[in-house]
Amino acid sequence: MANLQATVRGCARSSTSVADCVATVNRLLVGSTDAKTFVTLFYSVYDAQARTLTYCNAGHNPPYRSTVDGRMVTLDTGGPIVAAFGWSKYEQETIQLAPGERLVVFTDGVTEAANPADEQFGEPRLEEILKQNAQAKAADTIQHVLDAVLKFQAEAPVADDITLVCLRT
Questions:
Q1: How confident is the model over 60-109, as pLDDT tens digits?
Q2: Contact 169/100 with Cβ under 8 angstroms?
Q3: In which band, very low, low, confident or very high, does the pLDDT at 144 lie, cut at 50, 70 and 90?
Q4: N or C: which end of the chain has fewer CB within 10 A?
Q5: Which candidate, 102, 96, 97, 98, places its Cα nearest to that of 144?
C-alpha cells in the first residue's frame, strides 16, 4: 500500500488526466510487484467550485452516487485492476454533482463483512442503509454504515479492513 500511495501521489502531480494517472500507476506497479499482486483503485479529482468529479475505477467496488431524485448510481467507468496487466487501458468520466448529492466510496471489507452464519453483508444491505439515511451528513452516513456492518457481524471475526469515504455536495 505504501508503494501504491507513493506512486499515485507522484503520478497525480504530473499526469494530464485521471485516466493517464491510473495507467501510469498500473505500468509502474506491474514492473515493481510480483505476478500474484494486484490492487483495486478508485481515483478521482473533485472540483468543489464546479461540483464536478472526474474519476477512473480500476476494478474497485463501484462507489454509490445518491442523486437528488433518490436514484443510486454506481461509478464504474475505468478499467481492470492495477499491477496485474501491463497492457491495461483506462477510461475516465466526469460527472456533475448537484447540491445535496452524495458520493460513498467503500472497500470490499464493507460488503464482504460476514456474520456468524458466514453470510456476507452485501451490496443490497449497503444500498438500503444509504437509502434510509439519504439526507444524513457525510460523517453520519459513514457512522450509520459502520454501525450496521458491526451489528451484522455480531461476534464473527473481522476478516478485512473497512474503509468508507463520503462526500456530500
A1: 999 999 998 889 999 999 999 999 988 999 999 999 999 999 999 999 99
A2: yes
A3: very high
A4: N
A5: 102
pTM, full prediction: 0.91
User: Is domain 1-99 annotated with CATH 3.20.20.70?
Assistant: no
**Of 85, 91, 80, 41, nearest to 63 (Cα)?**
41
- Provide the residue type at 18 as one letter: V
Instruction: Report the distance separating Cα 24 and Cα 3, nearest Å.
Output: 13
Give the contacts of 39 (CB within 8 A, at least 6 positions apart): 4, 29, 58, 81, 82, 83
Rg, the chain, Cα only: 17
Burial category of 59 from C-beta neighbours within 10 Å (exposed 0-12, middle 13-18, buried 19 and up): middle
Domains of the chain by residue range = 1-99, 102-169
Contact (Cβ atoms closer than 8 angstroms) between residue 99 and residue 51: yes
